[in-house]
């Protein structure tokens, strides 16, 4: 089995190749290492290999890692945000990529500790309009974005999506294209967005072809999850 450092290097090579194929600068694509369910030792190994941003989906699982590693890493919350977890998220994370309701955004803004940088926010969009999936409806993302942009302790950075799985590279691109179009529409309307968070281990090439600026990669860096 190869090491985290080796797998990380392979992911960087995939990002590079996908960017070049799309005529894009690889430096415009940021890598979030999704460390949910992984032990502190795995995060340390990735840090030692130069990785800095980590994504977590479960608050209870993340807090001990954040306590051990702290500001040596940048912490992104990417899981469903429950109302009773907003305080812990606002206190311990740098980013929340999975905001899909104004009520949650308001709580995060109110509960962000004074003196800390604003919490960096992406809105999660349910591009496939699947009722079983999290995310704001594409028709409502504009209104939510304008409301979130007004909250004092948040900084709206962009959009995120988790599309339905597909093995077919052409079908993989459809939801990513849709998210990019929504993102460009909001930019045209005057919102200063710079983050299009889309693409995971199985579909990062399709996401980069459609303009991703941040890919969220777990399995390809840390191996299969239990
Ligand atoms: C788990 C997870 C990922 C990483 O998925 P992999 O297929 O392991 O790369 C990315 N984004 C979100 C929101 C996740 O929950």
Structure description:
The structure is a single chain. With 226 residues, this protein is α/β, with parallel strands linked by helices. The protein has one domain: Alanine racemase (TIM Barrel), CATH 3.20.20. The protein has nine helices and eight strands. An eight-stranded parallel beta sheet has the order 7-6-5-4-3-2-1-8. Strand 2, helix 3 and strand 3 form a beta-alpha-beta unit. Helix 4 packs across helix 5 (102-111). It is globular, with a radius of gyration of 17 Å. It starts with a helix and ends with a helix. The relative contact order is 0.16. The model has no long low-confidence stretch (mean pLDDT 96). Residues 34, 36, 57, 78, 162, 200-202, 216-220 line the site of pyridoxal-5'-phosphate.
Mean pLDDT: 96
Give a count of the beta strands, DSSP E runs of length 2 or more.
8
Structural class: alpha/beta
Q: Figure out the total of helices.
A: 9
Major sheet: 8 strands, parallel
Structural domain tally = 1
Compressed to H and E, one letter per element, the order equals HEHEHEHEHEHEHEHEH
Percent helix among the residues?
40-55%
How would you sum up the global shape? globular
End-to-end C-alpha gap: 16 Å
- CATH architecture name: Alpha-Beta Barrel
In short:
With 226 residues, the chain is of the alpha/beta class. The protein is built from 9 helices and 8 strands.
Primary descriptors:
226 residues, alpha/beta, TIM Barrel, eight-stranded parallel beta sheet, 9 helices, 8 strands, globular, binds pyridoxal-5'-phosphate
Summarize the topology.
Blueprint: H1 4-21, E1 30-34, H2 40-48, E2 53-56, H3 59-69, E3 74-77, H4 86-92, E4 95-99, H5 102-111, E5 119-124, H6 141-149, E6 154-160, H7 169-188, E7 195-197, H8 204-209, E8 214-217, H9 219-222
Parallel strand pairs: 1-2, 1-8, 2-3, 3-4, 4-5, 5-6, 6-7
Helix pairs in contact: 4-5
